């Protein structure tokens, strides 16, 4: 028995299809469904993922950024080595802009603000992360878009300035407004309010690696049917 492998979670891949939002000879912009890894996981049964599916149609597609298994939304996938190199540098220098939509418990007050709290891996509770003064600097801007009184919740826009693992989930939970359906940071009642994590990468902006044009793409969140 391989204990190390047995300790890894098996994450069943959704049958929902990924879709192409934009295609040219240098890159793809795709919309990833929830419950699908961006890249293969460590467990042998977690090999089905977005990039493996995309490469069946576009063999040269590569990954420069990721979305969590539970998160849906937009990703750019370079198709050439030059595009991979250029986009990698742009992401590393934070030259891209990403906007997310989430449904969170309650209504954040004030209606817009910034969460500036450092994050570190929670080594006693893997794969969780935690707010920690000695962690990596992490900043998120939020804005309430709509109050949802029927669910005692609200739709918010989230803009991560940094790109830490679980940043948006943890930052919203840390100010008392966990994302509904979050299996890691929401309480049991908040988890039961949705059949999935109510987090979607709704807008992605970056400089095209070949033309130098500023590109902007949007994909509407389709998670409303998951609310209970």
Pick out its properties.
228 residues; 5 helices; disordered N terminus; Pseudouridine synthase; two-stranded antiparallel sheet; 9-stranded mixed beta sheet; 16% helix; alpha+beta; globular; single chain
User: Structural class from helices and strands?
Assistant: alpha+beta
Low-confidence stretches: 1-7
Shape: globular
Compute the separation of the termini in Å.
Answer: 40 Å
- Roughly how many Å is the radius of gyration? 18 Å
Number of strands: 11
For the record, the count of structural domains works out to 1
Family: Belongs to the pseudouridine synthase RluA family.
Pfam families: PseudoU_synth_2
Function: Responsible for synthesis of pseudouridine from uracil.
Organism: Rheinheimera mesophila
What is the topological layout?
Layout (H helix, E strand, L loop, with lengths): L2 H4 L12 E5 L3 E6 L17 H8 L14 E7 L2 H12 L4 E9 L6 E5 L2 E3 L7 E3 L7 E10 L4 E8 L6 H8 L13 H5 L6 E9 L6 E5 L10
